[in-house]
TrEMBL record:
<dbReference type="InterPro" id="IPR001920">
    <property type="entry name" value="Asp/Glu_race"/>
</dbReference>
<keyword id="KW-0732">Signal</keyword>
<dbReference type="Pfam" id="PF01177">
    <property type="entry name" value="Asp_Glu_race"/>
</dbReference>
<keyword id="KW-0413">Isomerase</keyword>
<dbReference type="InterPro" id="IPR015942">
    <property type="entry name" value="Asp/Glu/hydantoin_racemase"/>
</dbReference>
<dbReference type="GO" id="GO:0047661">
    <property type="term" value="F:amino-acid racemase activity"/>
</dbReference>
<feature type="signal peptide">
    <location>
        <begin position="1"/>
        <end position="16"/>
    </location>
</feature>
<protein>
    <submittedName>
        <fullName>Glutamate racemase</fullName>
    </submittedName>
</protein>
<dbReference type="InterPro" id="IPR018187">
    <property type="entry name" value="Asp/Glu_racemase_AS_1"/>
</dbReference>
Length: 420
């Protein structure tokens, strides 16, 4: 068993190496999945670049909302403490949602982690590069600004790709900061200071990686805290339903109740001594459904079997806030924050979304025009001249009405930027 696992790890490391070499051998950034490596010529040029944020879909917009609105630092002294000015007010962001290839959380269950890891590295390459597709037409443009930092605003992508993205950026010699959401989530648990058990709600892939129990245990342990009971529940449906994907026909509330019930049942089976208190929203889509999830736990608490297992008031941990703080501190440490009076090369934020590249020979689509599910989950890595998806500007009109409504209601700063 150990040998098989080692072989799989070596194989996926080799796939990342292939893509790293592909980028190295196309330094002008004109080919698909490549980067113009001259974009970070000096610290001054780098400082003026925007910050990239990516997720498998719209869920990472919850992290972008935190980045756009956080005021946890004094912008002049860089010390903790609000100063009435958003911490990233001068900076600009490029958001990318790889919606055509999502759910990311379901690749591990079909043993396609190798392809998922390649998708994650391609997401980073897109943000680093200048190449993007127009909404109409079949020729890529080369006017997208590269980025000075990458926020992996996806728990599944952080679990499977953070190390690869960091390794790749180092291999290409780029002065680019890479931040993920999982360590930030674990810090959020520590800072929540709550008693009781911890429940992780995440994708099946994130749960399979065990990244949260491991990171939370280490973080609490290092801070001298005892580690309470931690249970996980991997959802195959909730992120898709939040996206408004028609493959998930039930309401968000209905899926939220199923996941809350399954998490509580797992908690009960682990024979806890305290009630379940802290719920980690370990998928960036889930903060969009926090109300529905909390309502589900409140409903379960009314059932005799679950009453004593669930705390009366739950603490929700959304890793977005700690992620934003980590990015601020990393940029400050690297002296990559814009100085007073300086401005980004981009006047306003940009948003991109992947869609099927229907002209590509061999692509297989389902009835509603999305990638066919069997096709999507059977692809193998290493084909860098084949683009079955393309990244185009994201506008509210491209979002299913249900997810557009969620963003409008719950992420007002993002919505304002999206509508421009
Ligand atoms: N937003 C992703 C996360 O945080 C999950 C959604 C998906 O499965 O693609 O894990």
């Amino acid at each position: 068993m150990k040998t098989i696992t080692t072989l799989i790890l070596l194989a996926t490391a080799a796939q990342a190496a292939d893509l790293i070499d592909h980028v190295r051998s196309h330094p002008d950034g004109k080919a698909a999945f490549t980067v113009d490596t001259t974009a970070w010529s000096d610290a001054d040029a780098t400082r003026h670049l925007p910050i990239g944020v990516f997720d498998s879909g719209i869920g990472g917009l919850t992290v972008l909302e935190a980045l756009l609105t956080m005021d946890a630092f004094d912008n002049n002294t860089l010390q903790p403490g609000a100063d009435g000015v958003p911490d990233f007010a001068q900076e600009r962001f490029i958001y990318f949602g790889d919606q055509a290839n999502m759910p990311y959380g379901n690749y591990s269950a079909v043993q396609r982690t190798d392809y998922l890891k390649e998708l994650i590295l391609k997401d980073a390459i897109f943000l680093l590069g200048r190449r993007a597709w127009p909404a109409e037409g079949d020729t890529p443009h080369y006017d997208k600004p590269p980025v000075k930092a990458i926020v992996i605003a996806c728990n599944t992508a952080t679990a499977y790709g953070l190390e690869d993205v960091r390794k790749a950026v180092a291999a290409w010699g780029l002065p680019v900061i890479v931040v993920g959401v999982v360590e930030a989530g674990a810090r959020g648990v520590l800072e929540s200071n709550s008693d009781g058990g911890i429940g992780i709600l995440a994708t099946v892939g994130t749960c399979a990686s065990k990244v949260y129990p491991r990171t939370i245990s280490t973080t609490l342990g290092r801070a001298g805290h005892s580690v309470p009971l931690i249970v996980q529940q991997g959802s195959t449906t909730l992120a898709g339903a939040i996206e408004g994907d028609t493959a998930f026909p039930e309401s968000v509330s209905s899926y939220a109740l199923k996941e809350a019930r399954a998490l509580t049942a797992a908690y009960s089976a682990a024979k806890p001594r305290q009630p379940l208190q802290t719920i980690v929203l370990g998928c960036t889509h889930f903060p969009l459904a926090q109300d529905e999830i909390d309502t589900a736990f409140a409903a379960l608490r009314k059932e005799d079997a679950y009453h004593d297992l669930i705390a009366e008031h739950r603490t929700f941990v959304n890793p977005a806030q700690s992620t934003a703080r980590e990015l601020f501190q990393e940029l400050a440490r690297a002296k990559l924050r814009l100085k007073p009076g300086e401005s980004c090369v981009m006047e306003r934020g940009l948003f991109y979304l992947s869609v099927p590249h229907v002209e590509e020979v061999g692509i297989q689509l389902s009835g509603d025009g999305s990638l066919d599910k069997d096709y999507k989950y059977s692809r193998s890595p290493g084909h860098f001249d084949f683009e079955d998806t393309k990244n185009i500007p994201l506008t509210p009109a491209l979002m299913p009405p249900a997810s557009a409504r969620l963003v409008k209601e719950r992420l007002p700063a993002v919505w304002k930027g999206l509508k421009k």
